[in-house]
Amino acid sequence: MSKDLKKRFDRIVEILIQLQSKRIVKAKELSARFEVSLRTIYRDIKSLEQAGVPIIGEAGAGYSLVEGYKLPPVIFTKEEAMSFVAAEKLTQKFLDKSISDHFTTAMYKVKAVLKINDKDIVAAIENQIVMNKSNYDIFNHEVPHAFTTFFESIANRIQIKLCYRGVSDDLPQTRIIEPIGLFHESGFWYIAAYCLNREAYRQFRADRIHAIALTSISYSKEHISIGDFLAGRTENIQRTHVRVAVDKDIAMHLQWERSFYGFISQEEKTTHVEMTFETRSIDEFARWYMMFADKAVILEPDILKQSVRTLINKSLKKINS
């Protein structure tokens, strides 16, 4: 078999697998995934039909398999099997207990269809991957099924009743929400939702949820997408342009934290690295800057210099008191 023919054969098999994974698959999705033209995808679909695969649909509308059509169990490659091990470890750390337990159950089914040699490989490496526990909780352990509830709510468009304690709340408050999506940011999971109490879109941090329950009430209206929600968060935020010169020996240690303070770009100079930021809070930036102030110079703006001076003077007063 020629290299090009094998590549096409592998792609057609993957297309068939993807058709089994969703109700409708659009040609544009397949074209983007396999980095081929739409015309090539149409030819591949035609080949599957000629091979007897019962495909419903047509170009432009999307494709699906006839209900009940199934192939024998998929055979995973060694590399795919190893990726499942890593995914299981990540799930145990970054998702709640209910989802983690479901994934573990699914993994037993995956392992059941692996080749003998691949089972041995998985067994050899799964105990060698350790995900250390975070020093803070990203979920409330009293609400182990939060993600499952959110997924069911989004899939069926059913309202959720939350008992939620916001950062400024003395006690948890009851909220009725219509979730539109979930996102991970700065080490925490957030739920983007329309809040009927506030009559506005809000985000809710998972670890601040004290209780959660599905209601029997359908969503009150159509909602924006999670993508539009995330884009809208930044549109109305005023940002301040900041430039700082940081000694090279400390600049490399700021690569992880700087993104939280609006990092845009950097330019290496002879003795230092010039960093540019668009920060949403001068006060927050000043407090972060104090961590490496002896190794940096503020180039602009003057308001940041004044904010740092204020923090230094307050600190000196407390030290000298």
UniProtKB/TrEMBL annotation:
Q: Which SUPFAM superfamilies match?
A: Winged helix' DNA-binding domain
Indicate the segments forming the HTH deoR-type domain, all copies: 8-63
Name of one Pfam family that matches: HTH_11
InterPro entries attached to this UniProt entry: CBASS_pafABC_assoc_protein, DeoR_HTH, HTH_11, PafC-like, WCX_dom, WH-like_DNA-bd_sf, WH_DNA-bd_sf, WYL_dom
Which PROSITE patterns would you find in this protein's record?
A: HTH_DEOR_2 (PS51000), WYL (PS52050)
**At the top level of its lineage, which domain of life is listed?**
Bacteria
One function term, GO molecular function aspect: DNA-binding transcription factor activity
Q: Which UniProt keywords apply?
A: Transcription, Transcription regulation
What name does the UniProt record give this protein? Answer: YafY family transcriptional regulator
**Protein's organism:** Sphingobacterium olei
